[in-house]
Amino acid sequence: MFDKECIQSRGFKNSKDAAGRTTGFQLTIRSLYYRGVWLSQLRPAVITVDGETFSGEQITWTINGVTYTQGEMASLGNIHWGVLDPAVFTVVKAGGLSSGPHDIELSYTYSCSYFPPSLDTVLGMKPQKRTLVLV
Question: For the chain, how big is the Rg over CA atoms in Å?
């Protein structure tokens, strides 16, 4: 079951490489758009944790078990992110995050195929904020 908020309380953890080194962190979100979106409709996300901002190739999305860079998602108009499918962000940050509470802010927008280009990303949401505890 999902939390009401976009940023989910489950799935917030440090990520490790194959050698066991902490290389960043992960956080899970849910889509707030009731129809879901095609990956090509998503615009790059920006994540801020405790005032430190991450963007571009620092962030990958994992949807339905497949990981995508933000750059490659622009050409994936045949893959859908459904409203009931969680997405996992993996963020590159050497050493990951320390244990304890962290203030998280997430921003991303998405286009709508039936809107004119001048209104292309009006369906973007306001920045989502949540404090999560890393254990």
Answer: 15
